[in-house]
Fold each of these.
Amino acid sequence: MRHLSLLRNFTGHFLCLGLSSLLASCAAVGHVPTLEPGDYQFLRTNDPALATAVGKDRAFYVEQAQDSLHFFGQSKTDAPPHRLSYAVRRGRYVVLVQRKFDLDVFTIPFKARPPRGGVPVQLNTNFNAALYFGRRLDFYHVNSHLQLNQRQTPQVRTVGLGYGVFTGLGSTAVSADVLRQVGSGVEYEGFVVHAGAAAIYDARIFNLGLAVGFDQLLGPDGSHWLYQRKPWFGVLFGLDLN
């Protein structure tokens, strides 16, 4: 009991510090200083000249050099690689997509359990942590921004979307009200192993996900627990500390 209380206190302090950092840095949400070199899929542009130059190619290795993007085509034939440079201009934009796998650690601030066995909707705010693995898409919107000194500089806005599975450990309150039959008669916090699927939104400073999962209560009361392997709905939350 004392260890679980310490874990909850630590999680609460961690979330408070994270939210304070988020509020202090909210202007940076969804922005990165420059486009990282790497493999991208060309999605769209409102510049007809660039659309014509790109043609049917969609896979490129892209580098940013000050106010220009350099595209290096990844040809699957014997034809010479497609190469071009594009100077970002005001009023024009380019949208690129990067696909990759994602591995993250999340907390689960709450789980909502549907009514069951005469017990109404239950909101579980106990300590929960999850290891998430999935597929993600990072969208990069590159355009030109006019500064106060009338100088134009490239601006890169980004958002990440993903989907995947998770598993982890947590705790839940156990009492006679949530057992199909009388258990030990002692109210306590039991350990649960949870797993499920989630959709993730990544704003670079924080990650937020909607999840559906199920729990398995460990111990002798597991087989009598109303919510054993029953679905719940919740939220995943994490901070990007990279």
Amino acid sequence: MITPMSAVLFDFSGTLFRIESTESWLRAVLDEAGLALGERELAEAARALEEAGALPGGASPGRIPDELAELWENRDRSAEQHRAAYTGLSRQVSLPDPALHDALYDRHRTPAAWSPYPDTSEVLRTLRERGIAVAVVSNIGWDLRPVFREHGLDTYVDAYVLSYEHGIQKPDPRLFAVACEALGADPGDVLMVGDNRHDDGGAAALGCAVHFVDHLPVEKRPDALRPVLDLVAAAPEQPVRNGQG
């Protein structure tokens, strides 16, 4: 028997929102500090930061330094570990002022650093109109609620389940269970939407259906969330999987 879903869980970064480019991130922090780099130097520094994976929500690190390996694996369990992991990666890159590494981390936590995907508002609004409960389930080390408020999307979210607030990170099914409980939903009636097959796919162990979208720049992904509306309206009994990662 096919039954509609009662709730949807969304990942944050790469699913509903996308972080700014590494160059925009670095430029904003340099401007705030009253520092200037030539365009070539700025581009080179941004490229080095991107290769290091220093921007949360950006490119994955090309290599994790041995001294950061354990911290990196557990970075989303607390605010302190998250900051230490990413500033540790940032410090692999030489910048004009050592204080810039913490400033870069602080910048990525601001609403100005994030943009919703073009269809995020439409999809969240439509789910609300249909009476479908929504939770955001994120591996993160800081409070993302201000990002949703700043972009006028908080009214469409019923619960936020953030890894650092629970000391649990995806793919641990317990984090998805917290979200289902917060929404009063049976996992079998819940759809998890994310961009990471490993982390977000952990919801399947709880019995949730799972749908994946691509982690692409905002301008290159105009409507990947819209299929969620059809999946929620008529979801199969087995977990939904999309081959895109």
Amino acid sequence: MKGKVVLLGTSSAMPTPERNNSGIFLQYKGKGFLFDCGEGINRQIMKAGLNIYSLDYIFISHLHTDHTLGLTGVIETLDMHDKSRIKIFSPSGIGDFLKCFFDRFYTPEIKVDTKELKLEDRPFTVLDHLEFNIFAVRLNHLVECIGFSFVEKPKRRFIKEKIEELKLKTEDFKILREKGYIKKDGKIITEEEITEEVKGFKFTYIPDTYKTDNIIKLAKDSDILVIECTYLDEEEKAKKYGHLTLEYILEIAPELNCRKIVLTHFSKRYKNPEKFGERIKKADAGNIILGEDFMSFYF
């Protein structure tokens, strides 16, 4: 197991007794990534048994309070744990948001690096790491809003049949690492000839948005897609307030080609979203599930 994705909040607009406001924690090889930080996320991280000190990056989709109200609390907790630095990626305005709090209420010792992103209609790179990339794309909400993808970089693995066919031994692999090739029976064999590329894990988060092709551009072929599903089938409300319906998600699901689609951001009008489950069952969409707080997915 390399990591896990934990849902920390699955309600829209305001928390309910059963569901907190938006937040998703991704743990990958000791590094922590937080996608959105609604009210109460600080406590949700603790309740989930996650290591808040591992948090290195925070990605804010947009500045509505149900996605940002918990941010200052998380920063203060990190500061109290002597974390030296945290990096925050967001649409424009996050700097002013934090400055207001820091100037008037609390000045942390932790270094808070903010990067305000220029939105684009094609997936663009937010963070390029040795082992992964974070991509983003503009969404279609009432304010500037961004969807994010965590994509593990592909790796190469040896093809067992090729190894057996060439009868390679331990010393051959040592030479291969040193020189980039080996000689076998008068032939030069490169690593590419005896390995194959393996696709890395892909997680995508689609927060508040109305219909847009950018969803598919970013989320296609994800292993896990967490996507907002504020309404069941109320198309007029979805268009007015910039959200998605289950009907639209069912429509685009085949093109998304995601291994698992997890619905979140349910309107408080649905005390129990059992009708969502009934519609999913009727559509025979076995890869779509209803998200709940503290639901975890391992990879």
